[in-house]
Design brief:
Layout lengths: L3 E6 L3 H4 L12 E7 L3 H10 L4 E3 L2 H5 L6 E4 L6 H10 L4 E3 L7 H14 L3 E3 L7 H11 L6 E9 L18 H4 L3 H17 L2 E9 L10 E8 L4 E7 L8 E8 L2 E5 L5 E6 L2 E6 L8 H11 L9 H14 L4
Parallel strand pairs: 1-2, 1-4, 2-3, 4-5, 5-6, 7-10
Antiparallel strand pairs: 7-11, 8-9, 9-10, 11-12, 12-13, 13-14
Helix pairs in contact: 4-5, 5-10, 8-10
């Protein structure tokens, strides 16, 4: 295989700009087919993005001989089924986050990858964005000495613009998403903590539905102790007052601190009484750096840039935080 010819299952909003166009912009990659159950919307997407083929049936896309890799961008409830069907058909899979509705579902996806000897990567795409690569470098170079603890706050009012605002949205239906807006956003945040600090020793937390706007939890609080001794505390609340929103993670070290928004492009370094700000240009397609690396992984030219094992670990943390286990 010299080129990855992608097929997308679930060409919804996330694929319009964040990911879809990037498949045609990275080397050795092209988007050749898309699928959506609504045939008219699938055809419209294919026309607007100049995709040669479209389907309203997932099996037809999976079995298209021209398609040699599958990107799954449906709501999480369908991830497990489509991923297993694709891998059974002999095709590697790149799957959206959250990887599934639970850690157990993610483990079944891993078992299928092993059974069918297929590759699977997860769209924890912040691992490849310049701002977080720089953060990783700063930590490796002991820019704030030894990291003692991390504190994260994601506070948003109901119907905030950072998250899908409608009660009808699948993101706030636990049967489809696995939880609420926490399950939609926390995979990015928790995966970054795993990326920075490695394996988890223990984790605990709780989830509550305080606002009553939808069936899912709208407040989650959690703690992690990493095996390297770093402690983490996180609070996610999606019912704070208008104007009180906050997206901030602060890493406290023995010689200073680093703070940054997970959904932003800025790093603030405080050390020896001096503050330094590093800013990064927004990416046109936020997944493009990760997609480029996944293509190279599927072609056998590099290791997996975002493994399902990491995704399972973040799902296990989420399950513990929301008292599922």
């Amino acid at each position: 295989m010299q080129k990855i010819n992608w097929g997308i299952i679930g060409c919804g909003n996330v694929t319009e700009k964040k990911s879809g166009p990037a498949f045609n912009k990275v080397p050795d990659s092209g988007l050749v087919a898309v699928m959506r159950r609504d045939a008219a919307k699938a055809e419209d997407y294919a026309r607007r993005h100049q995709v040669p083929k479209w389907y309203s049936n997932a099996d037809e896309l999976i079995n298209d001989p021209e398609v040699n890799a599958i990107y799954i961008a449906t709501p999480p409830l369908q991830h497990e089924d489509y991923a297993i069907r694709a891998m059974a058909a002999g095709k590697p899979v790149y799957v959206e986050k959250p990887v599934s509705v639970s850690a157990d579902a993610a483990k079944r996806m891993l078992q299928a990858a092993e059974k069918y000897r297929q590759k699977i990567a997860v769209a924890h795409y912040r691992r490849q964005q310049p701002v977080f690569l720089k953060l990783k470098e700063l930590l490796a170079n002991k820019a704030i000495g030894e990291v003692r603890f991390a504190d994260l706050k994601m506070l948003q009012p109901h119907k905030s613009k950072i998250v899908a605002p409608s009660e009808e949205n699948w993101r706030v239906n636990p049967a489809i998403s696995g939880g609420g807006l926490f399950h939609d956003l926390a995979p990015h945040q928790l995966d970054l903590m795993l990326y920075f600090f490695g394996a988890v020793k223990e984790a605990c937390g709780f989830g509550l539905n305080q606002g009553g706007f939808y069936p899912a939890d709208d407040l989650v609080s959690g703690n992690i102790l990493f095996k390297n001794g770093v402690a983490f505390n996180g609070t996610w609340c999606f019912s704070v007052a208008d104007g009180r929103q906050k997206d901030i993670c602060t890493l406290i070290g023995s010689e200073g601190e680093i703070s940054f928004p997970v959904f932003g492009m800025e790093i603030t370094l405080n050390k020896n009484g001096k503050e330094e700000k590093l800013t990064f240009e927004p990416l046109q397609h936020v997944q493009q750096p990760m997609i480029a690396q996944v293509v190279q992984y599927f072609l056998g030219r590099r290791d997996n840039p975002s493994t399902i094992q990491n995704a399972i670990e973040s799902m296990e943390i989420m399950d513990r935080f929301t008292a599922k286990k």
